[in-house]
């Protein structure tokens, strides 16, 4: 078993088939749609349009572009059985209406079941902590391929203690 509530690490959630080395999208909605199509093709979501709608609704509350070239679009879906993390990179950058008004080039998409808001928040916090490292961000922008991107994320994630289960 890959852990239970509160135990998720990025290496348990992010897999090579959910990494896009170079996003083709040039705008915010395009990035969201590209991720939705990826998750549908990977068999992780049944309805990519529903995922796009949920993520767009969350973006309408305020951009998930956290600055430093990073965005973490996220949402909760009723029909997903487990948490999903995907990663994408855009070397050219995309205007994600980020807090610092700079284009985003590194994207983590987080999709969680509707009934686990605590786990959703803990995983968002974990992704945010991992991407705070400016060396990691630079290395992710330079990485040659999906394996390299995944290795960098796993190595950075491993520096932080595994979250404890909430009783």
**Helix share bin:** 40-55%
CATH class type: Alpha Beta
Q: Please report the number of helical segments.
A: 6
- Output the structural class: alpha/beta
CATH H level, superfamily name: Mannitol-specific EII, Chain A
Overall radius of gyration: 15 Å
> Judging from the principal axes of the Cα atoms, what is the shape?
globular
* Number of β-strand runs: 6
Mean pLDDT: 92
Elements, N to C (H/E): HEHHEEEEEHHH
Kindly estimate the percentage of residues that lie in beta strands according to DSSP.
15-25%
Task: Give the CATH topology.
Answer: Mannitol-specific EII, Chain A
Distance between the termini: 18 Å
Please name the CATH architecture.
Answer: 3-Layer(aba) Sandwich
Largest sheet: 6 strands, mixed
Structural domain tally = 1
Low-confidence regions: 1-6
Q: Topology of this structure?
A:
Layout: H1 10-13, E1 19-20, H2 28-41, H3 48-61, E2 65-67, E3 70-71, E4 74-77, E5 84-94, E6 104-113, H4 117-131, H5 134-142, H6 146-157
Parallel strand pairs: 1-5, 3-6, 4-6
Antiparallel strand pairs: 2-3, 5-6
Explain what this protein looks like in three dimensions.
With 167 residues, the protein is of the alpha/beta class. It has one domain (11-157): Mannitol-specific EII, Chain A (3-Layer(aba) Sandwich), CATH 3.40.930. The chain has 6 helices and 6 strands; from the N terminus they run αβααβββββααα. It has helices spanning 10-13, 28-41, 48-61, 117-131, 134-142, 146-157; strands at residues 19-20, 65-67, 70-71, 74-77, 84-94, 104-113. Strands 1, 2, 3, 4, 5 and 6 form a 6-stranded mixed sheet that branches. β2 (65-67) and β3 (70-71) form a beta hairpin. The radius of gyration is 15 Å and the shape is globular. The two termini are 18 Å apart. The model is unreliable at 1-6 (pLDDT under 50).
């Amino acid at each position: 078993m890959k852990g239970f509530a509160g135990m998720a690490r990025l290496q348990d959630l992010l897999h090579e088939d959910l990494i896009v080395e170079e996003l083709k999208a040039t705008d915010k909605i395009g990035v969201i749609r590209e991720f939705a199509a990826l998750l549908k093709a990977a068999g992780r979501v049944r309805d990519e349009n529903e995922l796009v709608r949920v993520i767009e609704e969350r973006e309408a509350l305020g951009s998930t572009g956290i600055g430093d070239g990073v965005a973490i679009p996220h949402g909760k879906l009723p029909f997903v059985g487990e948490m999903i993390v995907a990663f994408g990179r855009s070397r050219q950058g995309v205007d994600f209406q980020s807090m610092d008004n700079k284009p985003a080039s590194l994207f983590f998409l987080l999709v969680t079941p509707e009934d686990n808001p605590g786990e959703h928040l803990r995983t968002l916090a974990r992704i945010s902590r991992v991407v705070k490292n400016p060396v990691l961000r630079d290395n992710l922008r330079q990485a040659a391929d999906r394996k390299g991107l995944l290795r960098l994320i796993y190595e950075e994630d491993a520096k932080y203690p595994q979250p404890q289960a909430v009783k």
